[in-house]
């Protein structure tokens, strides 16, 4: 099946096919009841224009019936709508969930699939998803108007075939026109969308970097850039809108032209008296409703290419091996109750003996780096800025795509480190970690079972216990962008606690020194070493650091220089035969000796 | 009466609308074109039923086919012209709507960027996207619809009423009374709908904010194996969204159905009246058809009005949220009589009994901070994470105002200083560096093209040790950097932040843990650059390590929001009782 029909058929099933069909059936009367309305009006006008004295009472009853019909239609609308909202939200949620699940759990690196800014990704998850659900919803509209059209055509054909045909022709013309304009509309729409995403991305970045902008006084310049982006988007959007409107107008004009043609062709019949005023009333009423057909067909036809764009853009957010089937998979929604609890992650049965990487290469950043980490070892990666330390650990963990290299776990090859080297095998505390706008407890657990003892252990190992004690709401404190401000060091130690809570065999810690003072970092390694001894913490560590406390403790140090290994081995050996290590070490010694935190070793003022 | 003109701003020349409506209002020429188009789009369709009446009465009266055909062709011409007028209106309306809402976006962005960090600390970029773009988009859609469906619809409605009143005053009067009733009912119903639409939009903004945070934190989630858990949380948030949407849509659909019924009643009423008038012989069949067609014509605008009511609710909720945002005031009051900081040369700094507490909890973060720096002097702030060093830095940058005491720069209380001169004259490198999805040049100049030429940019990049990095870029200064610092290491990003400061000529520089992301080796490389930056400038340096504080003039040791030791570096150095002296002796030992 082609992508768009496939997505539509899945979306129809997103909350059970029954609900979509039932909802569609509920809508049908709202389309079909006007048939009866037209017949009633015909009767009224034939009564009005008949030779016999019009029966006023009958006319009034017909009018009452006309109102009654509309009351029924109103009740149906309210019911069908309430029913439809559930389907709509379910369909939207299904797509969003599938995209998010792929970004968060699919094999391969997620970073390469995401657009530059998370703002742009949000725009896709918002607008493209809406487009797809809309087009699926339009299908019901199309069915309803088509059914009305068919019935109306049969009735009209019975009255006057020639006039009916005259009505049908302009509508067919409108349909052809919309097909012809399809390609143009698709192009214009894509361009408008892309330029819209540029605007949202710029806004997102401007507010993410608001501190830098304010302190530089660059507000005006950022706004000027916003104006440029706005102007380009406006031009594209106006063009997009104009072509769509032209198409709409063409379908609208078909009605007016249709009525004109009815008058033109019916003139002789009317003259003869074969075509009554009642017939004219019926035709003009039906034509009004019939416009809905080319309009909904036109809307559908022009939304279809837009939907194709949306599918493509959403699919690009998914992993390369995933297809449209995965994008639109019916994965269920939970609007009225809790989603099913997650199965506790299976305890993997292959505890770390040795993890090994060979020839890890990331273009322009890392060149054929080998790495071997044995159970119970403490490995430190060090090097100057830009040496590739962070790239090395991120490449190992599958967070950046490898251009070459293999990774093995206990001598078995790891195909996708991004999904294999995760908790409970490996946990990672990154250099620039993020907390979410939620309670600290939720931020640490992230789905793990709530266990106060384990939380306390992880918090203590991560040297976050004192900070936590100082927070009035403890683990209930809401942190993250919309919560309490935590310092950089607190965020890093909180994320270290988050990693430790996952009881990994191997703990990977990227440079903590940016926000941790020497003393705290030393304490952290001390506690982790103790915990490794008594089994409360990970047995094996891979850390990026240039601190003495880490380097002196290391079983092996890997010195990187501009993406290549400059030396490898225990610190004392390296200090003898690796000039780069000697240089780094001297700098570090001086730096740490000057560290103000050493002051704290002196007794505090009373 | 015009209010007093506001004093002209520096960038005067164009007037700057400050209200939502002010932003949306079109210029005079565009407005006139739009009015003409809307009028044509209203009048042309109004003429059509007159032709059908003529047609019916003439046909019943036995006119020739030729005459009837002529009338029918007239109808056709009118119909096509009416549609053309409508398309023109749509085109004009969408141009005006985009121009107006873009002005509004820019106004909102400007206002929000002007708000201080207490505001931004609580908002995610995703939420700001929703508030600057999403809410405005709802307004934009509505503005187009308003001009097309509401204004044109109401005009058509009025035209129909006038025509029907002249055709048959009795039917006209009934139709008028009936329309007033419907209009009144709709106005009441709409009041009912707005709050629930606002709640629904708020739920949507929260959902968007959640998704944005999660997408920004993809690696944290993946590395913690929390993907499925995050998906579950999206399910829960979607459920909340559904419930809010359900309530809002139930009201909206009720309105639609109600109007539909009311409209049918109106049609029945008019036809009933026509039947009665026909029986009493005061009305032709053609007029009956005409009245019927006019009531039919009322339907489309009414239905579109109701359809728009849903957009209108969203737009109104959007407008309310836009107003809320515009109503957010800076907690940093604009000085009544702004005085610029000295335009050149180093600036003195004086913290006078400064205390600070966040407005929301009132917990004192700083108290009794006294610091005096002569122009050109440098101060090193030392202390543990969370001791209050960063807050001091933010007070000096006037990102916050002190709750006690005063911060004086260049002899001027910052609260009295011209904010623009504060930004120009006080530079900073902070711990977190935000890079933009833009060229290296834009990332350095923060989009200010006139700030420096390319040679100067290259020179500065070389100075901060990014010369090799620049040489390795495919398009040099034009190379587009990914947003979220993609492709740039944390250390390189930090160096770029240094380069940003070098570009301006501040008289006071704050380096807030500026070197924290740099390895000692790299730090040494730029130390001389920092020296050059500080030469002839006043500086406040915050670092965990003293290596970058080695040449400062004064030292303040901060602990628990207070300065526990403060003095000239050399005086502290010779005072054996000082913490600083003990520190120095340790350095000697290490060397």
TrEMBL record, chain A:
One of its GO terms (molecular function) is ATP binding. Residues 32-306 form the ABC transmembrane type-1 domain. It is a multi-pass membrane protein. It is found in: Cell membrane. Keywords: ATP-binding, Membrane, Nucleotide-binding, Transmembrane, Transmembrane helix. Residues 346-587 form the ABC transporter domain. Its main location: membrane. Pfam families: ABC_membrane, ABC_tran. It comes from the Bacteria. SUPFAM superfamilies: ABC transporter transmembrane region, P-loop containing nucleoside triphosphate hydrolases. The chain crosses the membrane at residues 20-39, 59-86, 139-159. PANTHER family: ABC TRANSPORTER, ATP-BINDING CASSETTE SUB-FAMILY B. This is ABC transporter ATP-binding protein. It comes from Actinoallomurus vinaceus. The lineage of its organism: Bacteria, Bacillati, Actinomycetota, Actinomycetes, Streptosporangiales.
From TrEMBL, chain B:
It is found in: Cell membrane. Residues 32-314 form the ABC transmembrane type-1 domain. Residues 349-585 form the ABC transporter domain. It is a multi-pass membrane protein. The keyword ATP-binding applies. GO terms for molecular function: ATP binding. Pfam families: ABC_membrane, ABC_tran. It comes from the Bacteria. Keywords: ATP-binding, Membrane, Nucleotide-binding, Transmembrane, Transmembrane helix. PROSITE patterns: ABC_TM1F, ABC_TRANSPORTER_1, ABC_TRANSPORTER_2. The chain crosses the membrane at residues 30-48, 68-93, 138-165, 171-189, 251-277. CDD domains: ABC_6TM_exporters. InterPro entries: AAA+_ATPase, ABC1_TM_dom, ABC1_TM_sf, ABC_transporter-like_ATP-bd, ABC_transporter-like_CS, P-loop_NTPase, Type_1_exporter. PANTHER family: ATP-BINDING CASSETTE SUB-FAMILY B, ATP-BINDING CASSETTE SUB-FAMILY B MEMBER 6. This is ABC transporter ATP-binding protein. It comes from Actinoallomurus vinaceus.
């Amino acid at each position: 099946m082609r992508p768009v029909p496939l997505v539509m058929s899945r979306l129809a099933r997103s909350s059970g096919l029954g609900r979509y069909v039932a909802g569609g059936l509920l809508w049908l009367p709202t389309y079909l009841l006007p048939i009866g309305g037209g017949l009633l009006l015909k009767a009224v006008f034939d009564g009005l224009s008949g030779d016999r004295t019009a029966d006023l009472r009958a006319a009034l009853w017909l009018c009452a019936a006309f109102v009654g019909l509309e009351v029924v239609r109103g009740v149906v609308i309210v019911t069908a709508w309430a029913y439809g909202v559930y389907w709509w939200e379910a369909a939207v949620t299904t797509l969003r969930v599938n995209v998010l699940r792929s970004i968060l759990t699919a094999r391969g690196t997620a970073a390469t699939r995401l657009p530059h800014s998370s703002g742009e990704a949000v725009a896709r998850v918002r607008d493209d998803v809406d487009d797809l659900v809309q087009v699926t919803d339009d299908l019901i509209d199309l069915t309803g108007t088509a059914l009305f059209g068919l019935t109306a055509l049969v009735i009209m054909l019975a009255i006057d075939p020639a006039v009916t045909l005259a009505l049908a022709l302009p509508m067919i013309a409108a349909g052809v026109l919309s097909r012809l304009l399809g390609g143009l509309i698709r192009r214009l729409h894509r361009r408008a969308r892309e330029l819209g995403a540029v605007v949202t991305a710029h806004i997102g970045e401007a507010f993410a970097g608001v501190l830098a902008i304010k302190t530089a006084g660059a507000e005006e310049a950022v706004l000027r850039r916003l104006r440029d982006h706005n102007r380009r988007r406006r031009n594209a959007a106006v063009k997009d809108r104009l072509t769509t409107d032209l198409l709409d107008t063409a379908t609208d004009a078909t009605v007016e032209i249709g009525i004109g043609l009815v008058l033109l062709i019916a003139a002789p019949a009317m003259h003869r008296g074969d075509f009554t005023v009642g017939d004219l009333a019926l035709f003009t009423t039906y034509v009004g409703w019939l416009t809905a057909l080319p309009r909904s067909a036109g809307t559908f036809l022009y939304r279809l290419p837009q939907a194709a764009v949306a599918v493509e853009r959403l699919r690009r957010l998914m992993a390369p091996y995933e297809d449209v089937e995965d994008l639109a998979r019916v994965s269920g929604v939970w609007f009225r109750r809790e989603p099913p609890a997650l199965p506790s992650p299976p305890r993997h049965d292959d505890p770390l003996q040795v993890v090994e990487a060979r020839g890890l290469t990331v273009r322009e950043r890392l060149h054929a780096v080998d790495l071997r980490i044995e159970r119970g070892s403490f490995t430190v990666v060090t090097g100057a800025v830009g040496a590739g330390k962070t790239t090395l650990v991120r490449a190992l963990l599958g967070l950046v795509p490898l251009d070459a290299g293999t990774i093995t776990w206990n001598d078995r090859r790891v195909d996708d480190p991004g999904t294999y080297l995760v908790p409970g095998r490996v946990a990672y505390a990154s250099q620039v970690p993020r907390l979410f706008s939620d309670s600290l407890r939720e931020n640490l657990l992230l789905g793990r079972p709530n266990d106060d003892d384990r939380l306390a252990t992880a918090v203590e190992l991560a040297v976050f216990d004192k900070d936590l004690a100082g927070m009035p709401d403890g683990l209930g404190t809401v942190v993250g962008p919309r919560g309490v401000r935590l310092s950089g060091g607190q965020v890093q130690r909180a994320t270290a606690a988050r990693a430790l809570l996952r009881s990994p065999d191997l703990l990977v810690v990227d440079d903590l020194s940016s926000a941790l003072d020497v003393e705290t970092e030393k304490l952290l390694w001390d506690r982790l070493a103790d915990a490794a001894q008594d089994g409360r913490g990970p047995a094996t560590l891979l850390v990026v650091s240039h601190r003495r406390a880490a380097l002196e403790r290391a079983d092996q140090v890997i010195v990187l220089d501009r993406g290549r290994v400059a030396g490898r081995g225990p610190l004392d050996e390296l200090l003898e035969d690796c000039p780069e290590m000697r240089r780094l070490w001297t700098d570090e010694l001086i730096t740490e000796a000057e560290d103000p935190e050493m002051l704290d070793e002196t007794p505090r003022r009373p | 009466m015009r209010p007093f003109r506001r004093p002209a701003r520096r960038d005067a020349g164009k007037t700057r609308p400050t209200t939502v409506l002010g932003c949306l209002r079109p210029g005079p020429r565009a407005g006139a074109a739009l009015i003409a188009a809307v009028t044509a789009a209203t009048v042309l369709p109004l003429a059509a039923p007159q032709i059908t009446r003529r047609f019916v009465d003439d046909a019943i009266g036995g006119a020739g086919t030729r005459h009837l055909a002529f009338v029918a062709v007239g109808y056709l011409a009118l119909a096509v012209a009416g549609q053309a007028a409508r398309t023109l209106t749509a085109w004009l309306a969408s141009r005006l709507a985009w121009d107006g809402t873009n002005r509004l976006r820019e106004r909102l962005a400007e206002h929000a960027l002007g708000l201080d960090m207490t505001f931004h600390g609580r908002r995610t970029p995703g939420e700001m996207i929703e508030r600057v773009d999403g809410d405005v988009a709802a307004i934009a859609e509505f503005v187009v619809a308003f001009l097309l469906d509401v204004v044109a619809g109401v005009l058509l409605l009025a035209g129909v009423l006038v025509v029907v009143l002249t055709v048959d005053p009795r039917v006209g009067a009934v139709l008028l009374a009936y329309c007033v009733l419907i209009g009144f009912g709709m106005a009441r119903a709409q009041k009912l709908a707005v709050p629930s639409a606002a709640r629904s939009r708020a739920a949507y903004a929260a959902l968007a904010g959640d998704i944005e945070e999660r997408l920004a934190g993809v690696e944290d989630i993946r590395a913690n194996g929390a993907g499925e858990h995050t998906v579950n949380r999206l399910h829960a948030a979607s459920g909340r969204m559904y419930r809010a949407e359900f309530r809002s849509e139930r009201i909206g659909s009720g309105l639609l159905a109600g109007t539909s019924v009311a409209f049918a009643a109106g049609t029945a009423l008019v036809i009933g009246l026509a039947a009665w008038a026909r029986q009493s012989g005061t009305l032709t069949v053609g007029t009956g058809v005409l009245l019927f067609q006019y009531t039919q014509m009322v339907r489309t605008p009414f239905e579109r009005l109701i359809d728009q009511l849903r957009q209108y609710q969203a737009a109104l909720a959007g407008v309310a949220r836009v107003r809320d945002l515009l109503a957010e005031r800076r907690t940093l009051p604009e000085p009544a009589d702004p005085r610029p900081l000295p335009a050149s040369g180093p600036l003195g700094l004086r913290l006078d009994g400064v205390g600070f507490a966040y407005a929301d909890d009132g917990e004192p973060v700083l108290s009794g901070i006294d610091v005096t720096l002569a122009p050109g002097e440098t101060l090193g702030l030392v202390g543990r994470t969370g001791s209050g060093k960063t807050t001091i830095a933010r007070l000096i940058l006037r990102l916050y105002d002190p709750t006690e005491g005063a911060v004086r720069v260049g002899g001027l209380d910052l609260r009295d200083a011209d904010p623009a001169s504060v930004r120009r004259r006080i530079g900073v490198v902070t711990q977190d560096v935000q890079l933009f999805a833009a060229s290296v040049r834009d990332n350095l100049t923060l989009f200010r093209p006139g700030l420096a030429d390319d040679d100067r940019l290259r020179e500065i990049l070389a100075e901060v040790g990014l010369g090799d990095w620049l040489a390795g870029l495919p398009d040099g200064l034009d190379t587009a950097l990914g947003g979220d610092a993609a492709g740039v290491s944390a250390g390189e990003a930090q160096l770029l932040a240094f380069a940003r400061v070098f570009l301006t000529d501040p008289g006071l520089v704050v380096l807030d843990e500026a070197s924290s992301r740099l390895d000692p080796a790299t730090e040494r490389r730029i130390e001389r650059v920092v020296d050059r930056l500080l030469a002839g400038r006043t500086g406040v340096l915050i670092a965990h390590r003293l290596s970058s504080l080695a040449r400062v003039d004064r030292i303040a040791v901060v602990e628990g929001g207070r300065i526990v030791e403060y003095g000239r570096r050399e005086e502290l150095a010779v005072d054996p009782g000082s913490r600083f002296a003990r520190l120095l002796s340790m350095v000697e030992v290490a060397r």
